[in-house]
Design a protein that fits this description.
Number of helices: 21
CATH class of one domain: Alpha Beta
Strand order of the largest sheet: 10-6-5-14-15
Number of strands: 17
CATH architecture of one domain: 3-Layer(aba) Sandwich
Helix content: 40-55%
Shape: globular
Largest sheet: 5 strands, parallel
Length: about 600
């Protein structure tokens, strides 16, 4: 590589190219060595090359002139090609090569980004189309905090791939099929026996209150104080009860599912009728299909409200979508000799696994394995996807390992992990309650996702209103100078951003305890409120606001990023420059 030759790609990619050249010179006989580049402690630099230790393990005792990992690291640093992006290098510990980036190069790169667009930094991937399977709640169960991680992480991965010019098929693989629907439908018929007459009323009540058996529902009026009208359902009439100036807690939307599950577990007669209802549903009987469709639609509308609030786009293709394809896929696998009989079930034996991969249950029914195999087949053959990414908790890791192994044995996927098409499971740790136990829908203490979003928004809005009417020793800021719509939009942006960031900042693979106070620190909300009012309305120097707060005491939150963004916007606004015009300038003044 010639000195100062321009290398495109991310900073990490560009450094990898430089260290690749150095490694080729340092250890010419180790041709399969890839540069190990990682961010390092800011005290030592910006990035670090960590190849020395592993290289020394390979070459010691082979007659090499090196006497340890540190001399290997020193040679790697010495052989590094000259580049304007590197200001200095140093050796630390057992041969770690620390790199400090040139501030002049960073400024030049930012200038180039402003002119050519941020897309110049996006990684170049060989894959053209990918499926990201995420969120995927079960029908008739309300989304709770346990669904948060899959939804947020999956959306983030999809955005990153889209930024890298990959066509992303965002799939919501909802649980809309299976034995539980016999239980739900039978329970619905039992509570409303004359379905032809009252089914619309029953479903309508559920849709209006987001709970089939809830007696109270709320309607939010448009007003400064967010008055709430409370109504009571009496027979077929809706009667106004009272008007209040505070929020009511909405009862659990999963009550219908819980009640039917309790009945299923305790009443053998009901259980038998529910099992027969599954047969009727799968057989296509109109009455059962209609009830199933209505239940699904109610849940779907509830989920969509959550997705809209979080700015998440998904296309639903649930379990029922793939059901017609299952027999053909299983026939293909059978012809390839992958499926065997075992204890009345049809299974695929996976080497190294204690239990087989059951694709047809002993009663002849399909299950998650048969559905997931079919979904993978469909995505490869019908949707022509090259990369399938499944975002679920780590507890499902073995299931996906067996799924991918079966697909490789069938010839759907190549044997290695570095060739396309390929499939990956992106696992994550669980969201735990204050008691250290997993959040579950059937728990009566579960925190619903919609309630979390309401709480996030209300706390941020309260901070905006409170701080907006207080004097900051500069001037008086009136919350009334903002419209109700502006307050709502700002509270949503900060509140929902806090929810997303609080999840993403945690180690993906570890569990974390959900805590409202840590996620929605009132001091942090107040900080942003001060930032909003002072910068947007009165031109206060934002850096002075930092004097009122110890940032290190407020926690690692989304508001730090929003605060920085607001400061940048304030600087641009005060400059009087048009950002779009600046982008057109080929050379910015220093």
């Amino acid at each position: 590589m010639a000195a100062d030759e321009e290398v495109v790609g991310t900073v990490k990619d560009q450094l990898a190219k430089l260290f690749e050249e150095s490694l080729r010179v340092t250890v010419p006989d180790q041709t399969d060595t890839d540069p190990l580049i990682a961010a390092c402690n800011p005290r030592f630099g910006d990035y670090q090359c960590n190849n020395a230790m592993s290289l020394w393990t390979k070459i010691k005792g082979t007659g090499s002139a090196f006497t340890g990992p540190q001399p290997v690291g020193q040679a790697i640093m010495t052989n590094l090609p000259r580049s304007e992006m590197i200001e200095s290098c140093s050796i630390a510990g057992p041969g770690f090569v620390n790199v400090k980036l040139s501030r002049q190069w960073i400024a030049k790169s930012i200038q180039k980004m402003l002119i050519k667009g941020i897309e110049t930094w996006s990684p170049k991937l060989r894959v053209k189309r990918a499926v990201v399977d995420f969120s995927s709640p079960n029908i008739a169960k309300e989304m709770h905090v346990g669904h948060l991680r899959s939804t947020i992480i999956g959306d983030t991965l999809a955005r990153m791939l889209e930024f890298s010019n990959v066509e992303v098929l965002r799939r919501n693989h909802v649980g809309d099929w299976g034995t539980q629907f016999g239980m739900l439908i039978e329970f619905l018929f039992e509570k409303f026996p004359n379905m032809e007459v009252v089914s619309d009323q029953a479903i309508g009540d559920l849709e209006a209150s987001e709970n089939l058996f809830r007696k109270l529902f709320i309607y939010k009026c448009s007003s400064t104080y967010s008055k709430v009208l409370v109504y009571c359902i009496l027979g077929n009439k809706v009667v106004k009860v009272s008007s209040v100036k505070h929020w009511y807690t909405v009862p659990d939307n999963g009550a219908f599912y819980k009640a039917s599950k309790q009945r299923f577990d305790s009443d053998p007669g009901f259980k038998e009728r529910a099992q027969q209802a599954v047969v009727s549903l799968q057989g296509g009987k109109e009455k059962y299909r209609k009830a199933w469709s209505q239940i699904c639609e109610i849940s779907r509308k509830g989920y969509e409200k959550v997705y809209q609030r979080l700015g998440i786009v998904l296309e639903e293709k649930g379990e029922s979508f793939y059901n017609p394809y299952i027999p053909g896929v299983l026939e293909e696998l059978g012809k390839k000799g992958l499926i065997e009989e075992s204890e009345g079930a049809r299974v695929i034996f996976i080497e190294g696994k204690k239990y087989p991969f059951i694709v047809v249950k002993s009663d002849g029914g399909f299950n998650y394995a048969s559905t997931d195999l079919t979904a993978l087949w469909y995505r490869l053959n019908e949707e022509k996807a090259e990369w399938m990414i499944y975002v679920t908790d780590v507890g499902q890791r073995e299931h996906f390992e067996m799924l991918f192994t079966a697909a490789k044995r069938a010839g759907w996927l190549p044997p290695g992990d570095n060739s396309y098409p390929k499939a990956n499971h992106v696992g994550f740790g669980l969201v735990l309650g204050e008691d250290g136990k997993r959040f579950r829908t059937r728990s009566t203490e579960v925190v619903k996702l919609v309630d979390l979003l309401d709480e996030a928004k209300s706390r941020c809005k309260a901070a905006l209103v409170e701080r907006g009417i207080m004097s900051m020793n500069y001037t008086w800021c009136k919350a009334e100078e903002w419209t109700e719509e502006e307050l709502e939009q700002t509270a949503e942006a900060v509140g929902y951003g806090a929810v997303k960031y609080a999840d993403l900042k945690n180690n993906r693979l570890t569990n974390y305890t959900f805590n409202f106070d840590q996620m929605l620190n009132d001091q942090v909300c107040s900080l942003f409120a001060d930032c909003c009012f002072s910068s947007m309305h009165f031109g206060v120097q934002l850096k002075e606001l930092s004097l009122f707060y110890k940032f290190s005491d407020l926690g690692n939150t989304a508001v730090y990023l929003l605060y920085a963004h607001a400061r940048i916007c304030s600087i641009i606004r005060k400059s009087g420059k048009d950002v779009e015009e600046l982008k057109k300038v080929r050379s910015l003044p220093s």
